[in-house]
Amino acid sequence: MTCLLCGQHLGSNLTFRNLLFLKKEADSLCFTCSSSFEKIGEEHCPTCYKAGVSTSCQDCQLWCKEGIDVSHEAIFTYNQAMKDYFSRYKFDGDYILRKIFASILKDRLRKYKEFQILLIPLSSERFSKRGFNQVEGLIEATGLSYLDLLGKSEVKASSSKNRSERLTTELPFFIKNGVTIPKKILLIDDIYTTGATVNRVKSMLENAGAEEVRTFSLVR
Q1: Element at 107 (helix H, strand E)
Q2: Is the pTM of this model over 0.85?
């Protein structure tokens, strides 16, 4: 078995790596690669998991002023290793890399058993170009089920916009016709930056009848 990121033969390194990373062999990362990802520590924003702060961060304070109570959780920081990972997985289309975080995601999501999982969708145009939804790939690798209730119209990629532009852009997401909105929803995205995507969709779902919507991402 070889590491999915660097190609190094795992061999006897695998057991030691798993003891530190606390995940199964199926994740297929060598110790060097797995240790390059930085988990969010105990000091983080209590509502959005931004690392390095112990009280509500500026973004969450702004969301509160807009009437949105942030309730987000994330696992990793967006360090250079994670940027490189998403460059290969999301933009180069290395689809096998969806499996790397499957075990840690599944373990972290166990506590949301009472929630129905919804995923942030891609527009049909973006899906056709990329060939897959990166969030869907991450969750499918865990074996967890999710509901297909949301759609997205084609707009300029949010990663190329600043916070003000994201907030003033008309929401491109919509609830599909004829679906039933669950009472308790866990809305999942790959990366949380300012929260403009998940928090606006959260608000949309609450307005549509959801009683509790929490949000989650692999990375903050």
Answers
A1: helix 102-109
A2: yes
